Amino acid sequence: MTDHDFIGARVEDLPSPVVLIDLPTVQRNIAAMAAHADKLDVALRPHWKTTKSAQVAGLQLEAGASGHTVATAQEAVALADAGFTDIFWAYPTVGPYRVAAALDLAQRTRLIVGPDSVAAARPLATAATERGIEVEVRLEVDTGVNRTGVEPEAALEVAKELSRMTGIHLEGIFTHEGHVQGVGTDHALRERTGIAAGALLAEVAEEIRTGGIGLDSVSVGSTAGVQSAPTVAGITEARPGTYIYGDENQVFIGTIASDETAMTVLSRVISVERSGPVLIDAGIKAMSSDASMHGDGRIGTVPSGPGVVVAGHEEHGFLRGSVGLRVGDLVSIRPNHACGVTNMHSQVFAVENGLVVDRWATLGRH
């Protein structure tokens, strides 16, 4: 049976484990986020790593997205190869492969890249100058996630250095306020944390502009922070990703409702011989091993009941809490983190009312 034979099939006839994406939910999530961005008067540039799907990218643009965000060279190339023409590669292009990929992409599409230092930007600037082109860049600013990003108090001096380099053009600044998710279930604290991140980035932008450097974009990016960080005056763009599929971590902390989650991993019971957990065919190769915000080590949750996939081997999941299951029974699992699951699978199936309506290839995998 070929992949195309599955179009129109019942989900229970698919080989398991398999990723199912509820198409009506995706469509609602796209429309809701587009309306949110419109209300705030900010551009919406969704992070593509959540879906890695050309079909979904097209739906987002049709709903008004200004372009897409990616994290890797593979994602950037795949998105450009699929015909998309406005890409923000929100990652330092460090190393010869990334520099070469950025130069090639910049000559066939609009590309913006995201260094956080002079050291990260210089090889790209030098190579672009040698090729006789100019690549747009955004300076990443750390607003609290403590990952990549220049410290806010040093941003002006770095921006000055970048603005003096040939081969690159400083288009704006950006941040990933991922620490908003780390706040957990306290909604008020999440909101304050997101607003603080947005305000800090806006302050940095104003300082850079006062220093004589123009900036077009001041961009924030996270699903957990999208209801707060972009509300700050001076923010021009939002880059949420997980909102489109949802996952258990977002449901747990309260940023996404359970009925707004579109992704499930359909699994089958393969053994009930143990006195404890039931064994299913969705292990870490199907679910990924991304950490759970529940803090209990689970790799997935049964949304229709109390079941929890407490652990996984490569091809085996250990399911506790679901009773009365027999070998061959189907179990729908909501993963901890949608983006990691997408990257584990070569394809996902879009479904509606229990039937397969489309097959979406996963592009730009690592």
UniProtKB/TrEMBL annotation:
Gene3D superfamilies for this protein: Alanine racemase, D-serine dehydratase-like domain
Name the SUPFAM superfamilies for this protein.
PLP-binding barrel
One GO term under biological process is: D-serine catabolic process
Signal peptide segment: none
The record's listing under SMART domains reads: D-ser_dehydrat (SM01119)
Gene Ontology molecular function, alphabetical: D-serine ammonia-lyase activity
**Which UniProt keyword terms apply here?**
Lyase
Which InterPro entries does this entry report, sorted A to Z?
Ala_racemase_N, D-amino_acid_metab_enzyme, D-ser_dehydrat-like_dom, D-ser_dehydrat-like_sf, PLP-binding_barrel
Work out whether the entry's keyword set contains Lyase: yes
Residue limits of the D-serine dehydratase-like domain? 262-352
Record Pfam families: Ala_racemase_N, D-ser_dehydrat
**Stated family:** Belongs to the DSD1 family.
Quote the protein name from its UniProt record: D-serine deaminase-like pyridoxal phosphate-dependent protein
